[in-house]
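Inverse folding, one chain.
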């Protein structure tokens, strides 16, 4: 076990050293969340004077945006951590070392978490400075929202990273775009009830729908639906386990096909 912890720590430290030596990598983690937060923040301020709903629940759009960025950043951060190993042709070196596939997956999950925090904490403070809105007013449920959304984003990132490892760089587009397919059924900016009945069934099968419904309940009715959070957490665990299994399956398939050493730019 101590050997596994050491190997995972080495993977994480490699990426931390990459960030510390590249200001552009740090800026990239903050830039897009900041741009979206400012754009939606000003739109929210405009709508607040136009409709009573947004006037009564000012944080719905900004809160939805910031929580959705947790999903997007989690997925992209994990995918980038994996793709950087591929772009540098480092996968072959990693897997001829004592490191195991599950240690590799655990390492890039930790890197994704650190990169997500690096990007979103400054942006959440900017939302407070620019618009007087603090996502932290959600209280303890915010921690539950963050954990659930991160776990779900990792499941997608792991599955897509495995796909890229097996198919090659032609599948990179899926690593960037996969999470956005789920945005319409996640209810980020609107209740799940507005969806067609058949699509609501799909929506309740992903944990993001429960999180955003829970966020709106807190902001508009000051009610915490712990039962919904429990269901969302259970689904997130299932998806994360499935994502790990897909990653491991693609890894074994790539190793059998001999395609690991041929990956890179």
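Residues assigned per position:
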């Amino acid at each position: 076990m101590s050997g596994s912890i050491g190997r995972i720590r080495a993977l994480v430290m490699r990426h931390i050293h990459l960030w510390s030596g590249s200001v552009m990598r740090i800026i990239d983690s903050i830039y897009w969340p900041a741009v979206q937060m400012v754009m939606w923040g000003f739109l929210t301020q405009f709508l607040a004077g136009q409709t009573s709903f947004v006037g009564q629940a000012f944080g719905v759009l900004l809160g939805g945006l910031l929580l959705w960025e947790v999903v997007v950043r989690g997925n992209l951060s994990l995918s980038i951590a994996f793709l950087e190993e591929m772009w540098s042709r480092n996968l072959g070196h990693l897997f001829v070392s004592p490191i195991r596939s599950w240690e590799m997956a655990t390492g890039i999950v930790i890197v994704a978490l650190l990169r997500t925090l690096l990007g979103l904490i400054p942006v959440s403070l900017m939302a407070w400075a620019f618009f007087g809105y603090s996502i932290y007013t959600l209280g303890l449920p915010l921690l539950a929202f963050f954990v659930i959304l991160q776990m779900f984003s990792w499941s997608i990132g792991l599955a897509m990273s495995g796909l890229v490892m097996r198919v090659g760089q032609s599948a990179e587009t899926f690593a960037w775009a996969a999470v956005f397919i789920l945005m319409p059924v996640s209810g980020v900016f609107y209740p799940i009830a507005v969806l067609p009945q058949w699509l609501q069934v799909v929506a309740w099968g992903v944990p993001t729908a429960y999180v955003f419904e829970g966020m709106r309940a807190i902001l508009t009715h000051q009610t915490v639906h712990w039962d919904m959070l429990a269901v969302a957490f259970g689904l997130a665990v299932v998806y994360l386990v499935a994502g790990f299994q897909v990653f491991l399956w693609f890894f074994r398939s790539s190793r059998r096909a001999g395609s690991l050493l041929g990956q890179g730019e």
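The CA atoms of residues 149 and 234 lie 12 Å apart. The chain has a mean pLDDT of 77.
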